[in-house]
Amino acid sequence: MKGYIGSYLDIDLTTRKVSKKSLAGEWCNQYVGGIGFGIKVAWDNIPKGVDSLSPQNVISFWTGPFAGTLVPVSSKYCAVAKSPLTDTIGYGISSGYFGAELKRAGYDGIVIRGKASKLVYIFIDDDLIAIKDASQLAGKTTWQTDDLIKEELQDDSIRVASIGPAGERLVRFSCITNAKNRHVGRNGMGTVMGSKNLKAIAVRGTKDVEVHDLRTLLKVVKPLYKACRGPNMYYGREGTPIKIMQHQKKGCLATNNFQKMTFSQAEKVSGETMLKTKVKKIIACEMCAVACDHVNVVEEGQYKGAHSSVDFESLWALGPCCGIGNLDAITKAVELCDTLGMDTISTGLTVSWAMECYEKRIFDKELTEGLDLNFGNHEAMVELVRRIGLREGRFATMLGEGSKRAAIQTGRGTIKFAMQIKGLETSAYPFRTMQTGALGHATCITGAFYQRSGSYQYDEKEVVDRLSLDEKRGKLVADGENDYSVIDSLIICKFSRKIYENKEELAKLYYLVTGKKITWKEFLKAGERIYNLGRAFNIRHGFGREDDYLPARAYEERVKDGPGKGAIVRMDQWNAALDSYYEYREWSKDGIPTRKKLKQLSLEDVREEMGV
Ligand code: SF4
């Protein structure tokens, strides 16, 4: 098939052996690309009991069939491995230029095993692959690493995906950064690179990615590019931070570590204010006319010189969730996360957990090593983010383990304030006032993340009663997960939702690129297979129904403010909704895929291992 290159690199860092392997044809049919390939590789290569930070963990990077072609918003890649933060299947997806460059170098993906004896980086120069010494890059930020590798290789157009000091020092929510402000975030894929002594991957590709029907593809993509700039595409014009005020009005702006649902300083950190006062440039990824990347620059004051790309989730996690109403401080904190190489959501929510512990007098200044961690103290927040990224001091080192591990280490009931599921800090869609979203966060195979099912959108659009649950939500969540599994395997940017409202359009593009005819319904079968395989990976590593629950606060404390005042997640409704989800998926009451389902999805090896 065109679109796919048909080969990938298999690199063992322990033995320094590099092999070029052929992509199995049935993989394309059954797993599509992107996360589908990554989860398949993880299932086949990471047996039960493997420590996520050991050389036995395998990390793979994959593109989709559209990367490097003319298809809009398709220049993406993903990294997949066992997550050091959650111990579940872990993955993150990034944009920029790296994915398309890898395709142009002649590879659909890279599988990396083992551990290098010292810090290295991989240079993929079309057919030439080198594992190079990276001792000169030790401790360098992601931005410095990007510059230094380009300087060393004397080519500014080389694409670099790297980790910062946080990844090298094994902060469990470390990112992989490319194009300086694009990240494989959330599940600690940068930590896995750090555990393998792999500082970066640099790619130069000079080949073409062939497509099946270029002439028709050109005609079909033209209106799609136009649609990227259409009236309903606010991501480019206003940017995602306009959601701050939308959430505030609905009583969904989680504040002070989810203790409140409205923020008294919301206007000060709103997308509208940010756009007027801080955004100095807007940039785009390869083959994208949306251009959602809004870059803030701080021009005066104590954070003068700080600049970073601040999206809604980062703004919220390091802003309202920490009680911070200072855009300059938030811009600085995001810059620190980006350069040191950490996930902004997990960083923000681990800090907000520590702030709640401090305000409840579980922590004192001696323990925080001099930091006055009251909500709203932006100087303390910025300093703590810096210390976490560098693993400086005992307190910040503990926080670098993530909120769940830090709470277990602290004890004294602080696990109640850790706003996480399966160890992954949750996103900006609060459980009690967006309950369909909550179910999607809980069943998510990578921990609490909104981008694996998009189920929060039912709450946002108010097409369901978002303050309660019923037995219809299971279907909504499962359908969303299957849908997003295909999107993340193709891999298409989720901000294209409004461009590809008719999903058959994607099937048509797939035909024009690959030459293979397929319907969206058939794609969804692959999506279901991918999600079931991810679930099977988690079951293999000890997860089950008991892990599909929300933090205690959701069931025990009623919302105290805003339009959702009084809301709580009822345990009886939760159990019924979870049952309905398992039933729709044809899983047992314990959340294990049934024999019938696994056979239907041709996952025979999974069925055998599970003994069902
Ligand atoms: S919408 Fe934003 S993240 Fe998505 S491809 Fe375009 S610029 Fe990149």
Give the key terms:
Aldehyde Ferredoxin Oxidoreductase Protein, subunit A, domain 2, 13% strand, alpha+beta, six-stranded mixed β-sheet, 25 helices, Aldehyde Ferredoxin Oxidoreductase,  A, domain 1, single chain, binds iron/sulfur cluster, Aldehyde Ferredoxin Oxidoreductase Protein, subunit A, domain 3, 612 residues, 17 strands, 3 domains
Helix content: 40-55%
CATH superfamily of the largest domain: Aldehyde ferredoxin oxidoreductase, N-terminal domain
Any guess at the CATH architecture of the largest domain?
4-Layer Sandwich
Question: What's the count of strands?
Answer: 17
Residue share in β-strands: 5-15%
Give the low-pLDDT segments. Answer: none
Rounded average pLDDT: 97
Bound molecules: iron/sulfur cluster
What is the C-level CATH assignment of the largest domain? Alpha Beta
Structural class by SSE content: alpha+beta
Span between termini: 35 Å
Which fold name corresponds to the CATH topology of the largest domain? Aldehyde Ferredoxin Oxidoreductase,  A, domain 1
Shape: globular
Strand order of the largest sheet: 2-1-6-3-4-5
Rg calc: 23 Å
> What is the overall number of helices?
25
What is the oligomeric state here?
A: single chain
